[in-house]
Amino acid sequence: MDQIVGGPSIASVNSGTPSSSSQTLSLCPHGLTGMQSDSTYSGSKSSNCTGESNGCVINGYEETHETLQNGFEEFPERRKKRIRKMTTMEKDIISLMGQHLRERGYSKTLDCLIEESGCTLEHPKAACFRSHVALGQWKEAIEALDDLSPLLGDPYCTEKMRLLLLEEKYLEHLENGERLLALQCLRNDLASLPVHHPEKRIQDLSQYIMCQSREELYRLSNWPGVEGGARQRLMDQLQAFLPASIMLPPKRLELLLRQSVQLQVDKCPFHYMEKDISCYSLLTDHICSRSQFPSETVHTLKEHNDEVWFVQFSHNGNWLASGCKDGSIIIWNLQQPDSPRKEHVLKGQSSGVTSLAWSPDDTLLLSCGAEDCPEVFVFSTRTGEEKCRVSNAHDDSLTCSSWHHSGRKFYVGGLR
Q1: Between residues 289 and 68, which one has the greater pLDDT?
Q2: How far is 258 from 276, CA to CA, in rounded Å?
Q3: Is residue 367 within 8 Å of 376, Cβ to Cβ?
Q4: How far is residue 249's CA from residue 401's CA, in Å, rounded to a whole number?
Q5: In 10 A of CB 294, how many CB atoms?
Q6: Which long-range contacts does 286-294 make (Cβ < 8 Å, 24+ apart)?
Q7: Which among 94, 170, 206, 406 is least buried, having the fewest CB atoms inside 10 angstroms?
């Protein structure tokens, strides 16, 4: 049967009388369409329709419609499902959505997603392993770990995971007051593992047996207990040893979204909103309005006696350092925005201050001079005293500097 379809819904009228060749007029929202049939028609399902909803596959899509009792065939709407193989990215997106649903506790929605997409959230063996860990079935969890070991590739990773499982088992025995079982686990399981287990760790685990209460156990072991989410914390530690293709890292979707928002913030040309990144909307790309960018003079600071060559705000925004041509450095206290005041006056390079850099915790300040200055000064921003001077060679020219993110070292550079 060849159909000429002219709209999103069709009502076709047919007498239902068999004939070798019949003409049928179909009523369509946009007019009339012709339907030519070269086979017998009796009001039943067409041979190329499948399923109870009369689903037909047309040009790679599946259409469904219902046959009414009066002989009309009605298409309320075309529900088209493209029959094609999903790309790797599409599968990954579904996996990320599924993981987030599971972490939020939407188990029914997760089951529906898996059923409709046909995608599994993680490897079946990994799912079995996760289930045993969540239920505290340690014997079964270790057996599932043995099944997973061929997928890990590194035997050392398997033994490290086994160690974490047995430590959790030991602590839960103690939490339940089962000291004899805990002692057997310590002697027969933990102490006999082939993986290197520091002796001090064994001693620490042994001391926990002497705890007189759960609260004391929690405090000494830094362990939250089963009710405090110990098993979920354990699962997060175990996932560090599993490839992402076997089990997704925890909170993977949230991490990717945070990275995306952070990239948008970093590229925002007029960014001025300092707040937690989780407060930004994901529905639109982040960009600060130019009209709200600070553009009016609020205060004029006039304590310097010569040209100001460099200014730098602290990371917390409470302090401002300004460097002058005469080598003086002033640290301004901005904790009261309406009345900034001079906090410290520092003596920098005599050639003039061309660069200032706050340490990550804002406790130290680096100062560099103009050309031919071979020294970098380090000041305490709390007391205003000079901590030290750093130089490499007398003929260096150190005109810029930057801190390492750890705050334990810094970098300097110049023309030579």
Answers
A1: 289
A2: 10
A3: yes
A4: 37
A5: 8
A6: 286/261
A7: 406
pLDDT at 282 over 70: yes
H or E segment to which residue 164 belongs: helix 155-175
Q: Which are the contacts of 127, defined by CB distance < 8 A and separation ≥ 6?
A: 120, 121
Q: 366 forms bridges with which residues in the sheet?
A: 357, 378
> Burial level of 288, CB count in 10 A (0-12/13-18/19+)?
middle
Q: At what angle do helices 88-104 and 107-117 cross, to 10 degrees?
A: 160
Amino acid at 144: A
Crossing angle between the packed helical segments 124-135 and 138-152, to the nearest 10 degrees: 150
| Statement: residue 335 has pLDDT above 80 | yes
Q: Cα separation of 257 and 236, whole Å?
A: 19
Is this prediction's pTM over 0.70?
no
Q: Which string of b and e fits 391-407 if b means at least 16 CB within 10 Å?
A: eeeeebebbebebeeee
Instruction: Give the HSE-up count for residue 75: Cα atoms under 13 Å, Cβ half-sphere.
Output: 22
SS3 140: helix
Residue found by looking up tokens 């839960």 in the block = 172
Quote the mean pLDDT of the chain: 79
pLDDT reported for residue 172: 95
Instruction: Give every strand in the sheet of 353-358, ordered side by side.
Output: 353-358, 364-369, 375-380, 386-391
CA separation (Å) from 315 to 274, 339, 360, 365? 11, 20, 7, 12
CA angle centred on 110, ends 107 and 112, rounded to 5°: 115
User: Which is more confidently placed, 68 or 346?
Assistant: 346
Q: Which amino acid is at 398?
A: L
Q: Cβ(403)–Cβ(359) under 8 Å? A: yes
Cβ(281)–Cβ(264) under 8 Å?
Answer: no
